[in-house]
Amino acid sequence: MPTPHINAKKGDFAETILMPGDPLRAKLIAETYLKNPRLVTDVRNVYGYTGTYQGKEISVMAHGMGGPSATIYFHELMTEFGVKNFIRIGSCGAIHDDVKLKDVIVAMGASTDSKINRIRFRDHDYAALADFNMLQNCVSVLSETDMSYRVGQVFSSDLFYRPDFDMYELMAKYGVLGVEMEVNALYSCAAENGCKAIAMCTVTDHITKGEHLTADERRTELHEMINVALKTALTL
């Protein structure tokens, strides 16, 4: 049955799904990479599609911005629509000197300032980690490309515009490679519901250095990451 946020039917989604933040990027991925894509949900213009890629049924759907919002979609896809494998594809801001623009960060784990997991985990800290096999498969695919990538920890922030800029220095000290907004929520929701997840983020900005990709560079680099995500999906 449809939920308040997803107007699809049982069976409309594949077991494996790619999830960007932007609904228009989900549309672009479906129309560019999937064969015979069909729109299965469009509540609030958050588009979800299902098609095939090299013969494998795959879905793609946007999750919006921020952990609390994204968790609504993660939870409903996991509990109501039978999706088992989640591949987040997004962008992030680098904070570590060793990370450069255009690098792909594969998130092994995600720290956060959000209280989402405190609510889930009875006010204790929960270590939100990727599924190891998906992580391994993703890195294997990346190793066959000429893309520059890093594997490590990201920080999922509830605030896009932080008032405490010096916090980035502390994150870097603890080895955090980049900052985004949804990975922690995805990994913990997957653990809660017995699902698997991996997240990749292309570095489109370097927060502490004030560097940014151009609009054209963003399109090009994100397409390379999408190809990696699709090839990773084929291994599941």
From TrEMBL:
Query: At which positions is phosphate bound?
Result: G21, R25, R44, R88, I89, G90, S91
Q: What does this protein do?
A: Catalyzes the reversible phosphorolytic breakdown of the N-glycosidic bond in the beta-(deoxy)ribonucleoside molecules, with the formation of the corresponding free purine bases and pentose-1-phosphate.
Which EC number applies?
Answer: 2.4.2.1
Q: Name one GO biological process term.
A: purine nucleoside catabolic process
Q: Which UniProt keywords apply?
A: Glycosyltransferase, Transferase
Known CDD domains for this protein? Answer: PNP_EcPNPI-like
By sequence similarity, the record places it as follows: Belongs to the PNP/UDP phosphorylase family.
Provide the site residues for: Important for catalytic activity.
R218
- Self-association state and partner proteins as the record states: Homohexamer; trimer of homodimers.
The organism's lineage is: Bacteria, Pseudomonadati, Pseudomonadota, Gammaproteobacteria, Vibrionales
Native source species: Vibrio maritimus
The yes or no answer to whether the keyword Disulfide bond is present is: no
NCBIfam families per the UniProt record, alphabetical: deoD (TIGR00107), PRK05819.1 (NF004489), PRK13374.1 (NF009914)
Cite the active-site annotation. Answer: D205 (proton donor)
Offer a single GO CC term for the protein.
Answer: cytosol
Q: Which residues form the Nucleoside phosphorylase domain?
A: 17-218
Molecular function (Gene Ontology), one example = purine-nucleoside phosphorylase activity
Q: Name one Pfam family in it.
A: PNP_UDP_1
Annotated catalysed reactions: uridine + phosphate = alpha-D-ribose 1-phosphate + uracil; a purine D-ribonucleoside + phosphate = a purine nucleobase + alpha-D-ribose 1-phosphate; a purine 2'-deoxy-D-ribonucleoside + phosphate = a purine nucleobase + 2-deoxy-alpha-D-ribose 1-phosphate
Its recorded name reads Purine nucleoside phosphorylase DeoD-type
Do the record's keywords include Coiled coil? no
Q: Which positions bind a purine D-ribonucleoside?
A: H5, E180, M181, E182, T204, D205
